[in-house]
Design brief:
- By secondary structure, the protein is of the alpha+beta class.
- It contains 13 helices and 8 strands.
- The strands form 2 sheets. The protein has a 5-stranded antiparallel β-sheet with strand order 1-2-3-5-4. A 3-stranded antiparallel β-sheet has the order 6-7-8.
- A hairpin with a 2-residue loop joins strand 1 and strand 2.
- The N and C termini lie far apart (about 45 Å).
- This is Aminoglycoside phosphotransferase domain-containing protein.
Length: about 325
């Protein structure tokens, strides 16, 4: 635990007592998230801004009433508080820990993850009326920003972004330039498909309908709870954006794992519970195929000769490129 994490959590153990939990052990997983082991089970503790906490709480409560009950919900302490003020303007919130097994990118798990997401989205119909007053600023949304955000990412895929490339050996420089060219071409293909599929029109429709995305959906955030039950963790704040962003993020993770066929399986499984227009499917595919992994690599400002540092990130970027090309060729 570093000093920053320790300072943020120093008052939390005392506040956990107000929940009537017999804490056996608690361990910070990040500066803002800790796992709390008690004699009665496991819980997640969060340090959030009040806005963030109320946004997550309102959304989780809403879908639980619909019902989609297998999402984490904030508990009340002995004083009937669900949000406990902390230093630095933060609040403490303690939520149920879903448990179960995290899904993976496998032929069995991918359709389960997409089906769970479709069921969650069905339960989110009308949630904007509830969370809009909680976050008036965020309610303006980020509709229509996919193309500009991906275009900004594309601008990073240039040789000058690789540190010391001019000083690298000819073989190393040639290798990096070739891959940057491939990733840039892939970004162009992705952006082209996004435009051709009518993303701007879909974004305008989403704005009109005030769609809300759960945000932060990946295979590992969907949990198999057993007995045919699936749950979805809440690791990020819901956002006013095309709901298909959640599906696109899920498919991005599948593509980055090197399984373009899995993207088609996810789209089919989602479509069975929540029909998707062909244009929306094409936008999801375009987003998933964008070279996100390469962008993460380049933003690390790796040295041209430092293949050891770039190793895992670069392999993932190469795997994702191969899968994305096959995905766009389908």
């Amino acid at each position: 635990m570093n000093h920053e994490t320790d300072d943020k959590w120093r008052m939390v153990p005392r506040h956990l007592e107000t929940y009537g939990l017999k804490v056996v052990h608690w361990s910070p997983l990040s500066p803002f998230h800790a796992q709390v082991d008690t004699s009665d089970g496991v819980y997640d503790a969060w340090l959030l801004t009040e806005r963030s906490a109320r946004l997550r709480m309102a959304t989780a409560d809403f879908v639980s009433w619909k019902p989609f009950r297998t999402v984490p919900r904030f508990l009340k302490n002995l004083y009937r508080e669900r949000l406990v003020p902390q230093p630095d303007g933060l609040v403490l919130a303690v939520a149920d820990h879903l448990g179960g097994t995290a899904l993976e990118v496998t032929p069995e798990d991918v359709p389960l993850a997409a089906s769970a997401l479709a069921a969650l989205h069905n339960a989110m119909e009308g949630v904007s009326d509830v969370i809009g007053p909680v976050d008036p600023e965020g309610a303006r949304g980020r509709y229509g920003q996919w193309r500009s955000a991906l275009s900004a990412g594309r601008s990073w895929l240039r040789p000058e972004r690789i540190a010391n490339l001019a000083e690298a050996s000819p073989a190393s420089a040639s290798h990096w330039r070739a891959w940057l060219s491939r990733w840039k071409d892939l970004a162009d293909m992705s952006l082209g498909q996004l435009a051709e599929a009518g993303y701007d029109e879909l974004a305008a429709e989403a704005r009109q309908q005030r769609e809300v995305a759960w945000n932060g959906v990946r295979p590992e955030t969907v949990r198999n709870l057993g007995n045919g039950r699936l749950g979805i963790e809440q690791r990020s704040d819901p956002i006013f954006d095309n709901q298909m962003y959640d599906l696109a993020a899920l498919c991005q993770a599948i593509c980055e794992a090197g399984h373009p066929a899995g993207v088609a399986e996810a789209l089919d499984a989602y479509h069975r519970l929540r029909p998707l227009a062909p244009e929306a499917k094409q936008c999801v595919i375009a987003f998933a195929a964008f070279p996100h992994a390469a962008l993460r690599l380049v933003r690390r400002r790796v040295l041209a000769a430092d293949f050891e540092l770039a190793g895992d990130l670069k392999r993932q970027a190469e795997i994702q490129h191969s899968a994305a090309v096959r995905l766009l060729d389908r």
